[in-house]
Sequence to fold (528 residues):
Amino acid sequence: MSASVLYDAPGPKAVVRNRIYAVVGSLAIVALIAVSIVRLADKGHLAPEMWDIFNYAGIRQNIADAILATLKAFGLAAVGSLVLGVLLAVGRLSDHKPVRWVATTFIELFRSLPLLITIYAIWVGFLTDYSMWALAAGLSVYNGCVQAEVLRAGINSVPKGQSEAAYAIGMSKTQVMTTVLMPQAVRSMLPTIISQLVVTLKDTSLGFIILYPELLQTARLIASNTQVNGQYPYVSTIAVIGTIYIAMCLLLSALATWIEKRGRRAKTGIKVAPGVQTASIPTVDALPGVDAGGAGGAGGTDGGAGGAGGTGN
Amino acid sequence: MNVLLDNFPAFRDGFIGTVSITAVSSLIALVLGVAVAGFRVSPVPPLRYFGTAWVTLMRNTPLTLLFLIFFFVVPEILFPGMSPFVLGSLALGFYTSSFVCEAVRSGINTVPLGQAEAARSIGMTFAQTLQLVVLPQATRTVVPPLSSIFIALTKNSAIAGAFSNAELFGWQKLMSDKGYDIVPVFIWVAIGYLIITFTISGLFRLLERRMEVAR
Fold:
């Protein structure tokens, strides 16, 4: 149902009323922004000196290093989570009961724990001096579990005839999985996989808490080590770093949307799922066709109204 | 397993902290999310743009960044010295509201077309159509995704613990600073979170069952 079904084509009175609402609404939003700017300017946060700090080569270098650090952690976590995701998905679909059991427990446990708790435990317990690896490991474990569920949904959505045909021509279990099921699953789930990578990128910001010098940590360091006009330039640093962050996430989201559209255009193969981005540290349950059963609920119990929030990406 | 017994009052406070910040921010997220969803389907273009911008921005902002904004920028705009609890639940609520908005909007999309058309043809206005006809029916499809959104919210509330809120992650940090072995601490915190998330999904399952209608 498109939005227009909810209301009639406006008549003369409604047009006037809508215009009034539009003006009042825009004025309210503009007023809110204006008040914020005035209040910030009053306290000297918008003074030119506050923004001048970004002209220093040292600070620029810091920011460049931080972007690199964020991307490094993201790259490691992306690779780690995808590898782990494939392993766990295959494990959960295995014919051997113990393997299936271990994979299921692992997925359900780490998927229902806050990522921060896992990262912090890994950092303190095992990798105190290597915050980058702790961050990447925590992200890989958590997102690996989510990717595993995504892939499992993809594998389950491949028509049964495909694997039956493969078995019929004498392929082994491994061959069926690697040459028939997995490629089709990856193709159909690519938008969701990339949406989850966006979440991974966003979650690298948790490195802030374990003191990994990624973008946010650097922002805090810059802001708390520079003093301008007797104040710490938190507002300007957060504005600059925040913009960089959001731009990176939007770029990756745009890639997901593009791939989704491209996949939809091609008529061959199995249906491409809509990209789903669930609440940040997310559960896959909003995926169409994910069998959330056995989750015991901790991971969420959707499934029915699948694809909630799917199209807005 | 002395960690828990020796520090039970702190653990209890942390548990209550997690529950209360989750409760308060879910309420904020729910109210704000439904309002923004209303904006997004409204006949007034500026409100629609605002809704879209809100959702895009909030969904692509790392939650930690939002926390930084709320702890360092917002007090400057409003008034200094706001409590971490208020700031934390506002940040969580704002962030989650975008996901609630998308869930509600897709719920609205699942209500059959005829319903809204019938409402319009008996002369209902946009607000009436939404309030009396579409939203009550959308509720049923919105409940399952809301359950996973609120579970994600519970998990996200751990970040509030890093911003000087008393809650379970704060307890974990405190215990590891005190020199306790991280593994038992991790297990107890995990159990704490599992209790909350299981309760939420149980509650939602109950809600789903009550709202079930034979069609």
